[in-house]
Predict the structure.
Amino acid sequence: MSLKLLGEAIKSVSIERGVEGQERGSSPQYVALCHFVCDSREAFEAAFFSNATVLREDMPRYTDIEPVIQISEIALQPKESQIHYATKADIEVCCSTR
């Protein structure tokens, strides 16, 4: 749903599931991470805030965990089998759940 609502503002997305914490067999810090990559914070905010009510109302359908939102800048990422420094102001929005 979020990809449909946020539309072209989202350049890429990845979802991670927490497996373990630092100690083998311990619980992970977060059970899930969703990374949205946008061209800028402003692009994300324009897409997200206009749909925030719908997205928040949908969350109880799949979790009772309050999300944590963090705005990050991608400093290093692989591209076409090479690692390079990001040259544009890509923004990663990390919505984490504990």
